Amino acid sequence: MDKTNPGNFFEDFRLGYELRHATPRTVTQGDIALYGGLYGGRFALASSAEFAAACGVSPQPVDDLLVFHLVFGKSVPDVSVNAVANLGYAEGRFGMPVHSGDTLTATSKVIGLKENANRQTGIVYVRTLGFNQQGETVLEFVRWVMVRKRDPNSEAPEPTVPETAPFVAPDKLILPMGLNFSHYDPVLAGSPHFWDDYRPGEKIDHIDGMTIEEAEHMLATRLYQNTAKVHFNQHAEAGGRFGRRLVYGGHIISLARSLSFNGLGNAVKIAAINGGRHVAPCFAGDTIYAWSRVEEAWEIADRPDIGALRIKTFAAKDYPCGDFPGDEEAHPHLVLEFDYTVLMPRRF
Amino acid sequence: MDKTNPGNFFEDFRLGYELRHATPRTVTQGDIALYGGLYGGRFALASSAEFAAACGVSPQPVDDLLVFHLVFGKSVPDVSVNAVANLGYAEGRFGMPVHSGDTLTATSKVIGLKENANRQTGIVYVRTLGFNQQGETVLEFVRWVMVRKRDPNSEAPEPTVPETAPFVAPDKLILPMGLNFSHYDPVLAGSPHFWDDYRPGEKIDHIDGMTIEEAEHMLATRLYQNTAKVHFNQHAEAGGRFGRRLVYGGHIISLARSLSFNGLGNAVKIAAINGGRHVAPCFAGDTIYAWSRVEEAWEIADRPDIGALRIKTFAAKDYPCGDFPGDEEAHPHLVLEFDYTVLMPRRF
Amino acid sequence: MDKTNPGNFFEDFRLGYELRHATPRTVTQGDIALYGGLYGGRFALASSAEFAAACGVSPQPVDDLLVFHLVFGKSVPDVSVNAVANLGYAEGRFGMPVHSGDTLTATSKVIGLKENANRQTGIVYVRTLGFNQQGETVLEFVRWVMVRKRDPNSEAPEPTVPETAPFVAPDKLILPMGLNFSHYDPVLAGSPHFWDDYRPGEKIDHIDGMTIEEAEHMLATRLYQNTAKVHFNQHAEAGGRFGRRLVYGGHIISLARSLSFNGLGNAVKIAAINGGRHVAPCFAGDTIYAWSRVEEAWEIADRPDIGALRIKTFAAKDYPCGDFPGDEEAHPHLVLEFDYTVLMPRRF
Fold this sequence. Notes:
The structure is a homotrimer of 348-residue chains. With 348 residues, chain A is α+β, with helices and mostly antiparallel strands.
């Protein structure tokens, strides 16, 4: 019996399948530090246990995107190890905060399947759930990926494309228990701009750029136990489509998020991932810049201290974002559109 | 008085010498996370505190090879800082599990000495022991290294070559206190293959490859406080034998171990290191592939839940292992042969 | 209202201004491990909790230079994000030891201002203080940086250059509570040389060299949440003064400190930073070597177990330090002069 696992091909998925992913992963202070070294994040809630406690959340919650990457990583060996491309995200919502010492597991349910016209590949839609050791949901999201078929001639299932919401409705956002911005200190947090100061349509250039190194994106992707082959093997990729190792798309999301501190410094908590698209691949040597547009500003019922902003952050490579690339039309340097909802303190 | 330490040369060793190594090292969650980022390991016992607890071991033990590298690293300044080559290992056995917070120390005893015919170098055999802060042995192993002589004309000691066992006998393996695989969950662990499914002579290609970067192998080697000069100094190595920094051999062992998850996913615990040989040097830019052969399958007395497999894992560079390079004869791409014994759950 | 923060220019500083820096940062075991992987330090007090406890300090204090970098990093967005050069340090003194779990904050007071003759830039002198979550001072230091003016024609303040002490007087050094070297174990610590063995004027070549990689200095600088642009953005720096990303000067200090173990292995605690000068910029690919000169040897009142050494460590790039470059005059390979005071065990 062959012991190595080739992963699932398009034919292996059936609508309604529930995949229970390996392997559980305990998150620690070590992961938080390495994540910090990889992106240099400064959002105060994830940077300081004391600041988090002053905002009513103690122990300190782990950075939301680190949780996203870990749960995503769990799903790779079952869902996307034979994927050609990670196409999109929807209905991403953070639940119970994750703390150092928690152990994460994940499952995915197949909610859509659609063969492509060329019959070489098909699109697989899954709803992935991440859990802590108490079985509480820490994150859920839908993603769809283009997966190779084992055999182009094999029969395809009836096409099913799930409908997904354009964004997570503000009344569906989950606020961490105890979160309270009544005594929020904007000087310590590093930004004078509160929720009240942002307007839909407003654009913010995050100015700085960060160059990617091979060692960094591989360290990150392995930290997430993401096993997608294209990120790690130069010997194989030298003969592949790009001749180079591809950077995990989530690495770009985290870089853009970190750059967005300059302009969105009080967006200390991501509550939802409404959508996302990896517009173009990234490689070591690329310098990532980012800008954001405020899509919507929502009050939170009965919470005079907290507001929500729906943000779209765009990342471009080797192109400063002062002219907001990708806003009006496709832009040759654009690599990412990421649509998410953040919680911010309100003026009081 | 000269304050810098040139390290020991072949003449400085005497049979029976006991070397007490500096410097004690406290192992933490941080080391575990960085080790994870460097290799991307997914073996469930080291990945999840909850999984470990469900297997009866709590607190969670630190990855066995991280312990190996740390103890090995302690021995470098005294044993091999002037070594030309690390020649082999034998009689490696893990004892008390190491936990986050433990402090490791190490000693080595000189058990063999043999000058080489060219009189420039000699082989030093040591038995190295690693201890925790209670003085309990966490690891022991024999290794032998080729060490430069200070002066080719200096007198050589009587040659003494210790006899070492070809492998650690199964009745000598130390099971971690409490380890119990009766409720082992193979889906969570990520592999359906139990001890019962493996047969001596079986070969497993681990398929994937991982490319080495300078920043990665140096981060790893410094994490282990391994001070061997050849890994860090491009200015000096540019004029050396290879013109490049050499990758610490243990880095290759950990890469191969991590790749071996695909096919040996339930080999969650290394109990012994029977032998090992760094067949050829590795450098940044090399892509490491691996395959394994099952050498022996042993029952463990009175343990219907646990079996042991003696495994030989081969690593090759820039060469996928589908044809099992190095099995029949020397192979130009082979870089490592590593012979070790793992504990695996049995079907119940 | 523009949400992005361009940072302060020379005109924005006023004598006496107090800057309260963002963002608080909790230090953990993870930071300590990553710091270890970046520099490979072996000083026993920072390497081993057990060794620290045997020296009377428990819980184990965090490496002094990691504390320095974190506090320094806090000050960058307010003080030096528009700096051309980091010119010097003085009157650096470590206070309360920092432990894993502590949260650091920082403030800076403007203590000097002097426009340069070209009117393009000016020198800003600040006294920076780092605090733990109890408000206790963990570190203070003076530094001065050359900062761009927003407008060369803008009026300059009256020039004020603060007087700083040439070194921190030995009776001003703060010993960690409980520190006691009466039972110091030099074999475990890795060096036989006590305070008593060093003489002012003595020079020590630290022999080894360490080559810098882009991924490493960026991981380090982000770990410190240091946001200076020149370290991260190859796309912008390609058109800049050097065509390359500049390595954070503090990275060189930590490399030199780590190399200095060979010869100063018992200099387990830095008590003061008397001065420092980044003589030349460093880049990825440079190999750092170091040597040290003992400047002064001081007894500590009523402490027969502890002595202080004022040390000047010099770092050179791509140049082994056997002939002590920079001792007599400027040397083309010299990159750093760092003047600091260490605590060492005395013979008893």
